[in-house]
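Hi Y.,

Following your request, here is the sequence exactly as I used it, all 349 residues.
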Amino acid sequence: MALGAVAEPPVRRRGSDYAQLSRRISQAGLLERRPGWYVTRIVFTLGAFVAGWVAVFLLGDSWWQLPLAALMAVATTQVAFLGHDAGHRQMFRRRGPSELVGLLAGNVAVGISYGWWVDKHNRHHANPNHEDEDPDVGAGALVWTPEQAMETRGFGRWMAQRQAYFFFPMLLLEGLSLHVASIRAIVGREDGKYTVPMRRRAVEAALLVVHTAAYVALLLAVMSPVKALLFAVVHQALWGLYMGCAFAPNHKGMPMPTAEDELDFLRKQVLTSRNVRGSRLVDTTLGGLNYQIEHHLFPNMPRANLRRAQPIVHAYCVEQGIPYAETGLVESYRQALGHLHEVGRPLRG
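Below is the corresponding structure, written out as tokens. Let me know if you'd prefer a different format.
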């Protein structure tokens, strides 16, 4: 989507717009840490996660392990949300405690590299939806612009024509993709240097080995190889689907700025993001990512404060004449799929 159609806001002092909003947010106390809230969230989330694995052990060699695998996919995603919050230092101001929680949640519990994810996610936050700068919209299994679509060949072109139909089925492979990307990030080298910067590479590698060994050993210890394999397939597929469904509504189908677009920080973050309205159940299900606009404007804001920040940010955007996108969950998916389908139109023609 082009940004050219966005009307110029009536405010002249564009450089100060974000500073004014930031003052309002700060005066409301919404940037202050919420240690009590996070202690409660961590206890309940990790408690459910550990209880789930205890149930796997106690249930033994039973086909009821497959429904339990689906529940563990939910618990795993909720733990991943804690790693997301730690990566943005929403829990602690200091790097040390944040990294500790991130490594435990990411590498040990979920099995993805915390360092790789932080590097990738920070680049996304710096330039959301920017085709050349945001790794989340680079050409790959899916294409996000007509230009990317036209560069596809063979099976990739066939997929690009129909990618909207394959989007949700492809998310079933997202979990596997995250594991593979984590390994590549740790060992990948080019011209004698590691391709992904990482503060604790050896520690991350060791923790991923521990995760994988413990995961395989537990499953094979309590159930037959066939059931163990099916458990892993269901668990990893539904975890990837859940993760993809949590992140897909946030930017897909929103404007994609280019090098020609001159946007200040406030507009760059607001115009490329979409909120998903809903109850506190939606907040919990999506890990607070339904407040994508507020999260992008204030990445280190504790998740529990995003709901209170939303009306302040919304009102300020109205004052500045900045479009503020907010839809229901189903509509957000419709818009994302509509964008994917539209991107493939030149190929279908």
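The longest strand covers residues 189-190.

Thanks again,
Q.
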